[in-house]
Specification:
Elements lengths: L4 E6 L5 H10 L3 E6 L4 H7 L3 E4 L25 E4 L1 H9 L3 E17 L12 E14 L5 E5 L7 E4 L4 E4 L11 H12 L8 H16 L4 E4 L4 H14 L3 E7 L7 H12 L3 E6 L1 H8 L5 H23 L4 E3 L4 H4 L1 E2 L4 E2 L18 E3 L7 H10 L4 H4 L19 H20 L8 E15 L2 E15 L5 E3 L4 H14 L3 E6 L13
Helix pairs in contact: 5-6, 5-11, 6-11, 8-9, 13-14
Bound molecules: xanthosine-5'-monophosphate.
The site of xanthosine-5'-monophosphate has 13 residues, from loops.
Length: 511
């Protein structure tokens, strides 16, 4: 089934993916495509509406991206946001000017004329601005619909041609009625029906996978992370026992993780799930290794070898499942740079598995949709809300050599940290939080005795895409409980420190 869809044309703005996610949250499928798409390509794509994102340029810059003017003649509704709205004004004969001072942050905007965009929105409300250029005169046929103190055309539109521009960012949460404005555009201007729901998606994908796989054999590497777990569950729903999953237990997982994976997927869902017990092998290979990249390489290579051995036992398969998600496949901005995933847990698998085709059932989904899909498929929160975990897992959270004792200490400390963060209700807010085993020992005093034990560091960050991150402002009383519990309950740890470095200059992981 072909969903109705909206086209989000990417002019390089920082909120481009957020716009696409908001549209999908409003139950309309959309794709984010480079702004270089021609009017002909857009006509062939047949969207119910087009959204131009913001972008860092000024319309007058020589190198700034423009839009094929024929787009406005297609009869498809258009909403331009920030740079996108200036582009509408510039292309259709309005005037864009450079302000002496930019307008950034929270502003109040006031509607001066009703339109389909303003339905259900108070006359005055808060919006989020981030611009220097502004539209000083709207093109012929357009009316100013709203303004702020310093922005005469904060919203403008041509109701007949169904073309609208908003100077502010309706997609960010600080724009009080931003979501309502987007909803109005989709439903009142584009006439969308809203057929993009996870329930529909499950039904369609199950059909599609079933039809494609037929009686074939399917193999999936299950890492325990959200993406592979949801992909495997979806494929399992479609083809049942034709799917075999392999979980490599390298002994570097967090506390309880391997048991949880086996109990949810094999015992609970009845999946054909093979566990490869390779703890001793990995520890052996890592003995004496202290250099982080070396650790990564060893783990990556061993992972592939172990998986290959298991795959050989299963024999030739027809399909290999991969948990690729939409942000991995989007081509961004002007189309010259594709998003590259620097670390990929299972990137090397296709070369060692005897298979014919790859199945990527999450290719269309953003991370938050993958989570919603997981819930729709009945997976527990512990799996669906699992934070991203690096492929090399605890090995790069133990500074220096990885030993069984360090692993044990770190696992316990990390478990306590996760437990307290969850109890404080912060687990869905913080992007990633974990404990680190430093290779520093300090003197302590416990029960009247001098101790000389390890320093545990706590790392917790907020982020959108892991490219940049800020340290999470965890309340002191939560940190206090974590520190007290770690020093009391965990052997070989007598001090706890909290990492207050953002990325950059630090990275999220310590190694
Ligand atoms: P950094 O430490 O580079 O991490 O700021 C950014 C994100 O990537 C994860 N990460 C990895 N993921 N293999 C992975 O699969 C790796 O070797 C690896 N190193 C870092 C990290 O957890 C964070 O989410």
């Amino acid at each position: 089934m072909q969903h109705e869809r909206v086209l989000v044309l990417d002019f390089g703005g920082q909120y481009n993916q957020l716009i696409a996610r908001r549209v999908r949250d409003l139950n309309v499928y959309c794709d984010l495509k480079p702004c270089t798409m021609s009017a002909e390509e857009i006509r062939a794509y047949a969207p119910v509406g087009i959204i131009f994102t913001g972008g860092p340029n000024s319309v007058y810059d020589e190198a700034s991206p423009h839009v094929d003017p024929a787009v406005f003649g297609l009869g498809i509704p258009v909403l331009g946001i920030c740079y996108g709205c200036q582009l509408i004004a510039y292309t259709l004969g309005g005037k864009v000017e450079h302000a002496a001072a930019g307008e950034y942050g929270r502003r109040t905007f006031t509607f001066c004329k009703d339109s389909p965009l303003s339905a259900g929105i108070p006359q005055s409300s808060t919006c989020w601005m981030s611009h220097t250029d502004y539209v000083s005169a709207v093109p012929a046929g357009f009316a100013v619909l709203a303004s702020t103190e310093s922005c005469p055309a904060a919203v403008f539109g041509d109701e007949t041609r169904r073309i609208y521009g908003v100077q502010f960012h309706p997609e960010v949460v600080h724009s009080e009625y931003g979501n309502k404005l987007l909803e109005n555009f989709l439903y009142r201007v584009c006439g969308a029906k809203g057929d993009w729901t996870m329930k529909n998606y499950v039904a369609e994908q199950v059909e599609r996978i079933r039809a494609r796989v037929g009686g074939g054999k399917v193999l999936c590497a299950m890492s325990g992370g959200v993406d592979s777990a949801v992909a495997a569950t979806l494929v399992h729903r479609a083809v049942g026992d034709a799917l075999t999953c392999v979980f490599v237990d390298h002994g570097l997982h967090r506390k309880n993780e391997p048991d949880e994976v086996m109990s949810v997927f094999r015992d609970g869902l009845g999946m054909n799930l093979v566990k490869a017990d390779a703890q001793a092998l990995f520890l052996d290979k890592l003995a004496g290794v202290t250099e982080p990249e070396q650790k990564r390489k060893i783990i990556g290579a061993e992972f592939i070898k172990v998986f290959e051995q298991e795959a050989k036992k299963i024999g030739a398969v027809d399909f290999l499942v991969q948990g690729t998600i939409y942000p991995d496949v989007i081509e961004s901005g002007k189309g010259e740079s594709a998003v590259i995933k620097s670390h990929h847990n299972v990137g090397g698998l296709p070369s060692v598995v005897d298979f014919k085709e790859i199945v990527e059932p999450l290719r269309d989904l953003f991370k938050d949709e993958v989570r919603r899909l997981g819930s729709e498929l009945g997976l527990p929160d512990a799996i669906v809300w699992r934070q991203p975990c690096p492929g090399p897992a605890l090995a790069i959270r133990i500074m220096g050599e990885v030993t069984p004792q360090k692993l044990e200490t770190l696992r316990e400390a990390d478990f306590i940290f996760r437990d307290e963060v969850a109890k404080a209700g912060l687990d869905k807010e913080i992007w990633q939080y974990f404990a680190v085993m430093t290779d520093c020992k300090t003197v302590g005093v416990q029960g009247d005795f001098r101790t000389y034990e390890n320093v545990i560091a706590l790392r917790a960050v907020t982020s959108v895409d892991a490219m940049t991150a800020d340290w999470a402002r965890i309340p002191f009383d939560v940190l206090e409980r974590v520190s007290a519990r770690i020093t009391n309950e965990v052997p070989h740890a007598n001090r706890v420190v909290y990492d207050i470095t953002s990325k950059p200059p630090a990275t999220i992981e310590w190694e």
